[in-house]
Write a structure and sequence with these properties.
mainly alpha, 237 residues, 0% strand, 9 helices
C-alpha cells in the first residue's frame, strides 16, 4: 500500500484564527469608540459592517467546533492547502464590504462540506473555485441560481406547461424565489449567463429557451448547487 502523502504542519488552527479575527474586530470597535466624534461619524458604516461580520464569523466558529467534536473533520485537515485557501476566501469575503448573510451562509456551507472530505478530496481545487464563484455573485443572482436548482428537481407534474418559453421560466423563478417581478429576475438572468452559470436564450426575446436537464443551469452551476446541498447542519449534543 502506497504511503499516504500528508500536508506539512504549518501550525494553523482554524478555531484560533477565527478567535483572533473576532478579537481584532472587537479591538477595532473599541478604538473607534475612544476616537474623536468626527471619527464616529465617518465610521458608522464600518461599525455596522464589523458587528455583522463578527456575528456571522461567530456562527461559523460554533459550527466548525461542532463538526470537529463529532469527528466529521480529520485532525490534520486544517493544515491542508485546500482548507487554508477556503478559509482565506471566507475571511476575505468579510473584508470585501458590507456582508450579506445569504452569501456568507453558502460560503460557510461549501467550506464545511469540503472539510468533511465526503464530497471532494483535500487536493481538489473545486471547493475554493466554488467559493470564488459565490463571492462574485450578488445576493439576487445567488437566489435565482439556487431557485432554478430547486425547481429543476420538482416532479414533472408541477413543471412548466411551456418548457421552451423564456417567459414561463422567468415567471416560475419569480414566483418560487419571492422576487415577484420577472423584470427583476431578468436582471439577474443576464449576469448569470455572463458568468457561465445559466444557458443563454435561443432568441433574444422571451419566446424561446432551452431548459436542458437542469432548468437552464449549466453543469457548473448544477454541480455547485449539488455541492452546497451536501451540507448538514450540526445537531447540538
Amino acid at each position: 500500500m502506497a504511503k499516504q502523502e500528508t500536508q506539512p504542519n504549518t501550525g494553523l488552527d482554524t478555531s484560533s484564527t477565527v478567535s483572533k479575527t473576532l478579537t481584532a474586530i472587537a479591538e477595532g470597535l473599541t478604538g473607534i469608540a475612544s476616537s474623536e466624534r468626527k471619527d464616529w461619524i465617518l465610521s458608522f458604516g464600518h461599525i455596522l459592517q464589523s458587528i455583522r461580520g463578527g456575528r456571522l464569523l461567530a456562527v461559523f466558529a460554533d459550527e466548525w467546533r461542532a463538526y470537529r467534536d463529532k469527528g466529521k473533520i480529520k485532525e490534520d485537515y486544517q493544515q491542508s492547502n485546500q482548507h487554508q485557501d477556503c478559509l482565506q476566501e471566507l475571511l476575505d469575503f468579510l473584508d470585501d464590504g458590507p456582508p450579506d448573510s445569504s452569501r456568507f451562509t453558502v460560503l460557510k456551507k461549501i467550506l464545511l462540506v469540503a472539510a468533511t472530505e465526503t464530497a471532494s478530496k483535500r487536493d481538489s481545487v473545486l471547493p475554493q473555485q466554488y467559493m470564488r464563484i459565490v463571492r462574485s455573485l450578488t445576493a439576487g443572482e445567488l437566489l435565482v441560481m439556487l431557485t432554478a436548482h430547486s425547481v429543476s428537481k420538482a416532479p414533472p407534474s408541477i413543471k412548466l406547461d411551456h418548457p421552451e418559453s423564456a417567459a414561463t421560466w422567468l415567471d416560475a423563478i419569480a414566483k418560487s424565489s419571492g422576487l415577484d417581478y420577472t423584470e427583476l429576475v431578468e436582471v439577474h438572468e443576464r449576469a448569470l449567463i455572463e458568468k457561465n452559470l445559466l444557458t443563454p436564450r435561443v432568441y433574444p426575446d422571451r419566446s424561446g429557451v432551452s431548459m436542458g436537464p437542469y432548468f437552464r443551469l449549466t453543469r457548473l452551476a448544477h454541480d455547485l448547487c449539488t455541492f452546497i446541498e451536501k451540507y448538514e447542519e450540526p445537531v447540538a449534543a
